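== Item description ==
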Amino acid sequence: MTNPSKNVIAVDDSLYAYILEHSVKESPSLRRLQEKTDEHILGGMRITQDQGQFLAFLVHLTKSVHILEIGTYTGYSTLWLASALPPEGKITACETREEFVAIGREYWKEAGVENKIDVKIGPAAETMKNLLSRGRQEFYDFIFIDADKENSLTYYELSFPLCRKGGIICIDNVLWMGKVADKKDRRPTTEALRKLNTRICRDERVHSCIIPIADGLTLVMKKA
């Protein structure tokens, strides 16, 4: 059997700094929101700069116009996504706590994208069900899931009818700091992510892959 790690490069701090320096093009508004978020007690929940740029790249690549974001937090990822949208583009951003979103609003406005962002405060699953009841089937080009991990499979299944054929669903934290591969870890969050990963791997409705960026990002394309 081939050594699974034979061709995988280890990214230490110096190499990661090199990647950020030679890849990430973070606007002043993104930089300030990143720094503001890092001051927050839950600042570790934000996506990384290179991950934000990768998501923005995908939005450009897919020519997305309609985005659904499950889990907005301070809106750092939202700002990356909104900055990649065309003028007519729109993000439906789902978050449970207005005080988190309030941190990002200043920077959305500063960047000139606040008109592209429609925030929905409340449980994401309920918001998604409401969108479906309002006829948003196959409406979204791009869906980003980065909310409570225990409900990741629920969010994925609700995303599927909301995503257009050929559209992209991205799910963050699918490697869970490597814990998904630790058979001794039976905690609910880890088990929920394992269940999600297995479901997507076996889902014949989609093309999918796991990208080892940040804490693991799964890309799913809904088959035409």
